Amino acid sequence: MNSLELVDAGADSAAPSQAAINEALVFQLDGQEYGMALQAVREIRSFEAPTRLAGAPADVLGVLDLRGEVIPLIDLRRRFGLPSVPFDAFTIVIVVSLGERCVGVVADRVSDVVQLQPQQVRPMPDMNGVPSRRHLIAIAALEGRTIVLTDIVGLVADGGADLALAAAA
């Protein structure tokens, strides 16, 4: 699958293990390509302004009503400490399945879906002192591209997402 059509893996998708990313959805943040296990992706949507939550962490933009299910919306730029930019027509929301719950994550753009062979995936270099490092699990090098592979389930389940998940319940 190499199109930008909606991906609907279903809410029952199991969270992939960190080592099992062999098919990744590639998205961009601040010009860098990142990838997440396709199995974690429920769907991709255009950005829409969320309902704000008082007292939510800075990277939790609020909540969205997704066909009757209220889900928290996390800004990945803020989560990674990147500068904020205005949302535009290319800004997207990737809905990630966390077992029985879902979370939306905001990214600048979605590129494509890539198949990864084990020889294309390298371990993440040691970067002591980088706070978000534990959710950056590997580097994929393919056809002149460098894609940072993320543990998206761990990333969205960490930090302020717990507050937003509780508020959305």
UniProtKB/TrEMBL annotation:
- So which domain of life are we looking at? Bacteria
Q: Keywords, A to Z? A: Cytoplasm
Annotated ranges, domain CheW-like: 21-161
In the UniProt record, the signal sequence range is none
Which Pfam families would you find in this protein's record? CheW
Subcellular locations according to the entry? Cytoplasm
- Keyword Protein biosynthesis tagged: no
Answer whether the UniProt record assigns the keyword Cytoplasm to this protein.
yes
Q: Which SUPFAM superfamilies match?
A: CheW-like
State the protein's name. Chemotaxis protein CheW
Q: Which organism is it from?
A: Pelomonas caseinilytica
